[in-house]
Amino acid sequence: MPTRGHFSKVNTYRVLRTIQISNGISRKVIADKLGLDKSTLTKIVSSLMQTGIIVESPSEKPGPGAVGRRPILLDLNPQFGNIVGFEIDSDRVLGCIIDFHGNVLVKEHVSRTVTQKTIVGTIVKVFESLKSQFSTFSPAHTILGAGVSLPGIINPFDGIVSFSHPLAVRKPFELGSMLEEALGVPVILENNANCGCWGELFSRKERDDEDLVFVFIDDRKKEVPGMAPSGIAVGLGVAVDGRVRYGNNHLAGVFRSAFLTPGDKSQFHSKEREGELRELGANIAVIVNTLAPEHVILYGAMSEPSSIAIIKEEIAKRWPFPVDLPSDIITSRLPEPGLAYGAAAMFMETLFSMPRIPKVGEPVSAVYRGKELLSLY
Length: 377
Description:
By secondary structure, this protein is α/β, with parallel strands linked by helices. The chain contains nine helices and 15 strands. The protein has a five-stranded mixed β-sheet with strand order 6-5-4-7-10, with helices on both faces. It has a five-stranded mixed β-sheet with strand order 13-12-11-14-15, sandwiched between helices. It has a three-stranded antiparallel β-sheet with strand order 1-3-2. Strand 4 and strand 5 (92-98) form a beta hairpin.
């Protein structure tokens, strides 16, 4: 059951989240937004400043009714630490380091065959290269943790790759704990399309309630064991009210066309490129017609204007109502390296997101996924 301590932590999360999404905010505005009294807010801010995660800075403009006086603003401390993100595919590992404001500081790309046997060593190689680049201009840097984007069925809560065609993982693989030991930092794994969702939400962090669908489209030119040798490969993540949906047994994020028939080896029944795109549009239309998300965001090799036009056409012709289509069909605005950035953003959002209320009989610690990693509270 929730305790007084739980609700005290919730207020701390609320304050920190408000600071995170505001890029500089006064104590008065925080108190007004969250309905906190002065003494409660003072105690929370003092505690956060002692950890070093937030700092004070003067505003560039005088506050209302305070001619000549600039209010003191609270913001995240960029020197507190940074987050690493990795994007894993069967033939490459991409990595980047970002700061608390989402700026990409350094990035790296290693091309090599990645399998269950080689994945840890390859990620370590990219990690060491990133740290080496970063140390040239920030010798005292601190890496707080790492997010890892992977294809397949991923259990982010237990750090397990349950199944992945591209990585030839056929039974549960406890990658998270292996990476934490090898890298020496906390690690959270996530499905690649879900990482795209996290990245888009982070880039829109001024809002906490957006609904969106993220469609990762990869142009598969190489053979993947158990799959067709070519065609487009798709991952599809969904966020509702600003939260990425994991689905039962963490199966959300993976995609298979509703039009498959027995014997189809790819994700689509169609065997040619335009047909695959039209089939993808028809599948997305079901989600648009059911959930009416604000955005359908396309990312990857097939997100050029001609492909987007085909997908839009298939969605629009299946919209059954005499009102405008509710969803913008747009390309992703993730900075490069996209899904590695999304993985880092996923770790960041985990740190700063609000915990849920514990269920009856559930230990309170279960709802603090990520927060305890830094022992901030």
